[in-house]
Amino acid sequence: MSMNLMKKTLAALAGIALTATFSIANAQHSDKEKKEDIQRHRAMAAAHESAAKCLESGKKEDLCMKDLQASCKGLAVGKYCGMKHAH
Predict the structure, then answer these.
(1) What does the pLDDT look like over 28-45, one tens digit per residue?
(2) What confidence score (pLDDT) does residue 29 get?
(3) CA separation for the pair 5, 37 (Å, rounded)
């Protein structure tokens, strides 16, 4: 297989994989799933608001992050409760 043909094949396969990923991600959710998503978003927002208030109170960042992680356990992806910002 020539190098040019191999590059085109890999590009086509990557495109197919990307299209499949977006198709799965954009699948329609049932009303129950939408309600659950809404509840999760509100719970994550409340956890982040609580973390902001914790920081505003002057508590150490480590303590506030531990509280955020505890509030979000099983709720969101990653140790930042589904959200990470730049410093």
Answers:
(1) 889 999 999 999 999 999
(2) 81
(3) 44
Look at 54 and 76; give whichever has higher pLDDT: 54
CB 44 within 8 A of CB 83: yes
Q: Could you say which DSSP state residue 26 is in? A: T
Amino acid code (one letter) for 83:
M
Q: Is the pLDDT of residue 18 over 60?
A: no
Q: Residue 67 has which token pair? A: 């509280």
Q: Give DSSP secondary structure letters for 35-85.
A: HHHHHHHHHHHHHHHHHHHHHHTT--HHHHHHHHHHHHTTTSSTTTTT---
Sign of CA dihedral 45, 46, 47, 51: positive
pTM > 0.85: yes or no: no
Which amino acid is residue 58, in one-letter code? G
Closest to 52 in 3D by CA, of 38, 71, 36: 71
